[in-house]
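Students often ask why we bother encoding 3D structure as a string. The short answer is that it lets us treat folding as translation between two languages. Here is a chain of 354 residues written in the first language.
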Amino acid sequence: MLWKRPFLESRPDGRRGIKKKALGGMKEEKECTQNHGCISVRSVCMLCGCGTACPFWSKDFQMVICDGCGLVYMHPVDWSSLEDFYMNRYEYGKLGSTVYPESSPWDHDRADWIMQAMRNEIGTPRVLEIGCNAGALLSLLKSKGCDVVGIEPGTDASEYARTVRGLDVQTAFWDEQLEIEASVFDAVVMISVLEHFQYPIAALEKCWHVLKSGGLVFVEIPNLEHEKGFFIDFTWHGYAPTEEHLFCYSKGTISALFAKAGFDVVAVVETRELLRVTAMRNESSALLVSKNNYNDPVKIRRLLEFYRVSLRRRRMLHIIQRIAESVIIHLMPKSIVQRLRMYRVKRIGRGGQN
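And here it is in the second language, the structure alphabet:
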């Protein structure tokens, strides 16, 4: 397989998550080069080829920081029960048992971003979206005059895109078994997908293969350098990285990744906790990767440690605030509490204005 998303399975306690694999079986290499006393693990970085990485997060799963380029990724990964989850049980954005939501404001913004970059295209642009879910973004691009095709491994989502939205969506994984004609698309779109790939370079190389000369790739991914780019999941113990993301990219590492796959990066733009990458197919098929795009692993670790402490404190302050509010409301006379609630409703109705 070129890639697979980390398919999740149900745990005995009812939580969803990647099947836990014993972390003690990994081979220890040497003391960490990041100078904080841990032991590096053997893991060949797919970006720079460095053979060691430093553990940063080790709970139900382990995230490590490459000693060479600062790339953050999951190690090790258990692939035994992943495929079934994404084909049959993945329900991102699903409302109830059979309905998916209409296009969101974010989808409209993404469609405008893509169309603006393709404004000079002659004729009808042909667009492929990988991991299109139920086709909310594809339907917008179709309404704007694009000839759209989707690839989605989820059976329910892809069926909904075909039957309800009337889109050309194939139920499949983006891997070497998927047969698709070369040089037929003007653009390839991946929204919140690239971070799930097991082999992201191979997946981007396949994108290069299906694009026309000068074709564009549009990718949206979490931003490692934003506090909610790595710590995404919210738990009772605070914020934590999600088990679904195998890699977490910064501006530098995502630029290096695209260069290694044969693309010229046109723009990398921060939108809140996300990065939007626009890249163009380069006819040389392979570019030299500048080490200037690599991260300093020590700085990345310090940044993530700062975010972890900051978010933990914010979580504790939120809990204390909610407890204090509950105690005050309990001690107040009911008439005053009712007046405060009415005032709050009126204020919300006025848009929060005083």
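Translate back mentally: Confidence is low (pLDDT under 50) at residues 3-29. Keep this in mind for the problem set.
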